[in-house]
Design brief:
With 198 residues, the chain is of the alpha/beta class. The protein contains eight helices and seven strands. The strands form two sheets. It has a five-stranded parallel β-sheet with strand order 5-4-1-6-7. The protein has a two-stranded antiparallel ribbon with strand order 2-3.
Length: 198
Amino acid sequence: MIFEPLTRPFGGYIFDCDGTLADSMVVHHRAWLAALAAHGASFTFDWDLFTSRAGMSVPTTVRELNVQFGLSLDPDLVTATQRAEYQRFLPTVQPIVEVVELARRVAQVSPVSVASGGERDIIEQTLELLGLRQTFPVVVTAADVRHGKPAPDLFLLAAERMGVRASDCVVFEDAVLGLEAAKRAGMASVLVRSPNVR
């Protein structure tokens, strides 16, 4: 089982996208490797380093990597390359079936939303690919808030747009930063374990 069953019904259900609804983390990593190589990064962006940044926007990740490794990579240029590479690989992304099935089920009776640190058009393309665009009337992304995960802003905005109190929401997340954001938002959370853990 990739996540523990819920112990009670909630007023609102918030889902991360990458690694939670979409089995896309391996694809994102491949795009990152290509982008960093194209811009002359001199460190190894291994799986552990990649997943430690999961939930952050791409530009924020680049800025943090610059600090960590004493580099001066251009966040906008690396983001553009990573985005182009990911879109090239996007058709290979598959759903995480158990989470998608749960999302469709609860969407019939309760408000649902997606809250992601990614870019809106990429998230919407991913949801479209998975046949989920109509399931989620509320989609909140990094551009909608001032502070990304682990700040609670994304989840609080999702709750507000669903019309549900934060304390009555549950967040489905695969990343440590996302789980911390849910905690700071005063929300319950469910850890989604990747079906393709390396």
